[in-house]
Amino acid sequence: MRNSAVWVALFGLLAAAPAEAQTAADVVDRESLRAFVERAAERAENHTDADGAYEFFTGTFGPLGEWRTDGPDGVYLFVVTTAAVVVFHPANPDIEGDDHSGVVDENGVRLVVDLVEAAQAGGGFVEYHVTLEGHPRQGDLKVSYGTLLELAGGDALVIAAGFHPETVSALPFLEWLLNRP
Protein backbone atom coordinates (compact mmCIF):
# COMPACT_ATOMS: atom_id res chain seq x y z
CA MET A 1 0.00 0.00 0.00
CA ARG A 2 2.88 2.36 0.77
CA ASN A 3 4.25 1.90 -2.76
CA SER A 4 0.87 2.89 -4.21
CA ALA A 5 0.90 6.09 -2.19
CA VAL A 6 4.41 6.90 -3.41
CA TRP A 7 3.40 6.38 -7.06
CA VAL A 8 0.28 8.50 -6.61
CA ALA A 9 2.36 11.29 -5.05
CA LEU A 10 4.99 11.00 -7.79
CA PHE A 11 2.30 11.13 -10.48
CA GLY A 12 0.82 14.23 -8.82
CA LEU A 13 4.20 15.94 -8.90
CA LEU A 14 4.71 14.92 -12.51
CA ALA A 15 1.41 16.52 -13.44
CA ALA A 16 2.58 19.71 -11.72
CA ALA A 17 5.95 19.76 -13.48
CA PRO A 18 6.52 22.95 -15.47
CA ALA A 19 6.00 22.77 -19.23
CA GLU A 20 8.31 25.69 -20.00
CA ALA A 21 11.29 24.34 -21.92
CA GLN A 22 14.24 26.66 -21.61
CA THR A 23 16.61 24.61 -23.77
CA ALA A 24 16.41 21.83 -26.34
CA ALA A 25 17.39 19.36 -23.63
CA ASP A 26 14.28 20.36 -21.63
CA VAL A 27 11.84 19.18 -24.32
CA VAL A 28 10.04 16.17 -22.86
CA ASP A 29 6.44 16.52 -24.07
CA ARG A 30 4.17 18.47 -26.40
CA GLU A 31 3.82 21.48 -24.11
CA SER A 32 7.53 21.83 -23.43
CA LEU A 33 8.11 21.52 -27.19
CA ARG A 34 5.58 24.30 -27.82
CA ALA A 35 7.21 26.50 -25.17
CA PHE A 36 10.67 25.87 -26.66
CA VAL A 37 9.61 26.81 -30.20
CA GLU A 38 7.62 29.85 -29.05
CA ARG A 39 10.65 31.06 -27.06
CA ALA A 40 12.85 30.66 -30.13
CA ALA A 41 10.35 32.57 -32.27
CA GLU A 42 10.35 35.43 -29.77
CA ARG A 43 14.14 35.49 -29.85
CA ALA A 44 14.27 35.43 -33.66
CA GLU A 45 11.48 37.96 -34.12
CA ASN A 46 13.59 40.92 -33.07
CA HIS A 47 16.75 39.90 -34.88
CA THR A 48 15.80 38.90 -38.38
CA ASP A 49 14.76 40.26 -41.71
CA ALA A 50 14.56 38.35 -44.98
CA ASP A 51 18.23 39.09 -45.81
CA GLY A 52 19.73 38.32 -42.39
CA ALA A 53 17.52 35.44 -41.32
CA TYR A 54 19.78 32.57 -42.37
CA GLU A 55 22.84 34.09 -40.73
CA PHE A 56 20.89 34.58 -37.50
CA PHE A 57 19.54 31.00 -37.56
CA THR A 58 22.91 29.38 -38.22
CA GLY A 59 24.72 31.50 -35.65
CA THR A 60 22.10 31.24 -32.90
CA PHE A 61 20.21 27.98 -33.41
CA GLY A 62 22.83 25.87 -35.22
CA PRO A 63 25.48 25.06 -32.59
CA LEU A 64 24.95 22.28 -30.06
CA GLY A 65 23.86 23.63 -26.69
CA GLU A 66 20.91 25.74 -25.62
CA TRP A 67 19.00 25.44 -28.90
CA ARG A 68 20.12 22.02 -30.13
CA THR A 69 20.89 18.52 -28.85
CA ASP A 70 22.70 15.91 -30.94
CA GLY A 71 22.01 12.39 -32.15
CA PRO A 72 19.10 10.63 -33.86
CA ASP A 73 16.82 11.70 -31.00
CA GLY A 74 18.17 15.25 -30.97
CA VAL A 75 15.93 18.26 -30.56
CA TYR A 76 16.73 21.16 -32.87
CA LEU A 77 14.99 24.08 -34.50
CA PHE A 78 14.41 24.15 -38.22
CA VAL A 79 12.95 26.80 -40.49
CA VAL A 80 10.86 26.51 -43.66
CA THR A 81 9.11 28.97 -45.93
CA THR A 82 5.33 29.09 -46.14
CA ALA A 83 5.79 27.28 -49.49
CA ALA A 84 7.47 24.35 -47.63
CA VAL A 85 11.03 25.07 -48.77
CA VAL A 86 13.64 24.24 -46.12
CA VAL A 87 15.56 27.38 -45.15
CA PHE A 88 17.54 26.10 -42.16
CA HIS A 89 18.09 22.55 -40.89
CA PRO A 90 21.13 22.13 -38.61
CA ALA A 91 20.87 18.33 -38.44
CA ASN A 92 20.82 17.99 -42.23
CA PRO A 93 22.05 21.13 -44.02
CA ASP A 94 22.06 19.25 -47.34
CA ILE A 95 18.27 19.63 -47.56
CA GLU A 96 18.36 23.42 -47.19
CA GLY A 97 16.79 24.94 -50.29
CA ASP A 98 14.79 21.77 -51.05
CA ASP A 99 11.05 21.91 -51.64
CA HIS A 100 9.38 19.55 -49.14
CA SER A 101 5.80 20.23 -50.16
CA GLY A 102 5.53 16.69 -51.52
CA VAL A 103 7.05 14.88 -48.53
CA VAL A 104 4.51 12.55 -46.88
CA ASP A 105 4.83 9.81 -44.29
CA GLU A 106 3.51 6.26 -44.57
CA ASN A 107 0.06 7.44 -43.41
CA GLY A 108 -0.21 10.28 -45.90
CA VAL A 109 0.69 13.05 -43.43
CA ARG A 110 2.19 15.96 -45.35
CA LEU A 111 4.99 16.68 -42.92
CA VAL A 112 6.00 20.20 -43.91
CA VAL A 113 2.77 21.36 -45.56
CA ASP A 114 0.73 20.36 -42.50
CA LEU A 115 3.28 22.08 -40.24
CA VAL A 116 3.04 25.29 -42.30
CA GLU A 117 -0.77 25.16 -42.10
CA ALA A 118 -0.65 24.62 -38.33
CA ALA A 119 1.74 27.56 -37.95
CA GLN A 120 -0.45 29.81 -40.10
CA ALA A 121 -3.43 28.90 -37.92
CA GLY A 122 -1.65 30.31 -34.86
CA GLY A 123 0.81 27.50 -34.11
CA GLY A 124 0.26 23.80 -33.87
CA PHE A 125 1.46 20.23 -33.75
CA VAL A 126 1.91 17.65 -36.48
CA GLU A 127 2.48 13.96 -35.71
CA TYR A 128 4.16 11.87 -38.39
CA HIS A 129 6.50 8.96 -38.92
CA VAL A 130 10.12 9.63 -39.88
CA THR A 131 10.57 9.12 -43.63
CA LEU A 132 14.20 10.07 -44.22
CA GLU A 133 15.90 7.18 -46.00
CA GLY A 134 18.72 5.76 -43.92
CA HIS A 135 17.62 7.60 -40.76
CA PRO A 136 18.16 5.41 -37.66
CA ARG A 137 14.64 6.31 -36.45
CA GLN A 138 13.01 5.41 -39.80
CA GLY A 139 9.28 4.84 -39.26
CA ASP A 140 9.24 6.09 -35.66
CA LEU A 141 6.69 8.61 -34.45
CA LYS A 142 7.83 12.22 -34.27
CA VAL A 143 5.85 15.19 -32.97
CA SER A 144 6.72 18.63 -34.32
CA TYR A 145 5.41 22.05 -33.42
CA GLY A 146 5.59 25.09 -35.67
CA THR A 147 4.74 28.74 -35.37
CA LEU A 148 4.82 31.64 -37.78
CA LEU A 149 7.74 34.03 -37.65
CA GLU A 150 6.89 37.40 -39.18
CA LEU A 151 9.94 39.08 -40.67
CA ALA A 152 10.58 42.70 -41.51
CA GLY A 153 9.22 43.56 -44.93
CA GLY A 154 6.16 41.33 -44.60
CA ASP A 155 7.85 38.01 -45.24
CA ALA A 156 6.98 35.05 -43.01
CA LEU A 157 8.76 31.83 -42.16
CA VAL A 158 7.80 28.85 -40.03
CA ILE A 159 10.09 28.02 -37.13
CA ALA A 160 9.65 24.53 -35.72
CA ALA A 161 11.17 21.67 -33.74
CA GLY A 162 10.24 18.10 -33.00
CA PHE A 163 10.90 15.20 -30.67
CA HIS A 164 10.39 11.44 -30.50
CA PRO A 165 7.93 10.81 -27.63
CA GLU A 166 8.99 7.20 -27.05
CA THR A 167 12.58 8.22 -26.29
CA VAL A 168 11.84 10.85 -23.68
CA SER A 169 13.73 10.22 -20.49
CA ALA A 170 12.41 10.76 -16.99
CA LEU A 171 15.72 12.39 -16.03
CA PRO A 172 14.64 16.02 -16.66
CA PHE A 173 11.62 15.48 -14.41
CA LEU A 174 13.71 13.86 -11.69
CA GLU A 175 16.23 16.72 -11.90
CA TRP A 176 13.37 19.22 -11.59
CA LEU A 177 11.91 17.26 -8.68
CA LEU A 178 15.21 17.20 -6.79
CA ASN A 179 16.05 20.85 -7.43
CA ARG A 180 12.68 22.53 -6.95
CA PRO A 181 12.31 25.03 -4.10
Describe what is shown at a glance.
Helix content is 33%, strand content 18%. The protein is α+β, with helices and mostly antiparallel strands and 181 residues long.
Descriptive report:
By secondary structure, the chain is of the alpha+beta class. The protein has a single domain, classed as 2-Layer Sandwich (Beta-Lactamase), CATH 3.30.450. The chain contains five helices and five strands. The chain has helices spanning 2-16, 30-45, 53-61, 111-120, 171-179, and strands at residues 77-81, 86-88, 124-129, 141-150, 156-163. It has a five-stranded antiparallel sheet with strand order 2-1-5-4-3. The two termini are 28 Å apart.
> How are the strands of the largest sheet arranged?
2-1-5-4-3
CATH homologous superfamily classification: PAS domain
The helicity comes to 25-40%
> What is the assembly state of the chains in this entry?
single chain
Low-confidence stretches: 1-18
For the terminal residues, how far apart are their CA atoms?
28 Å
**CATH architecture descriptor text:** 2-Layer Sandwich
General form: globular
User: Over the alpha carbons, how many angstroms does the gyration radius reach?
Assistant: 17 Å
Helix tally equals 5
**Structural class determined from secondary elements:** alpha+beta
Largest sheet: 5 strands, antiparallel
Do you know the CATH topology? Beta-Lactamase
How many domains make up the coordinates? 1
CATH hierarchy class name: Alpha Beta
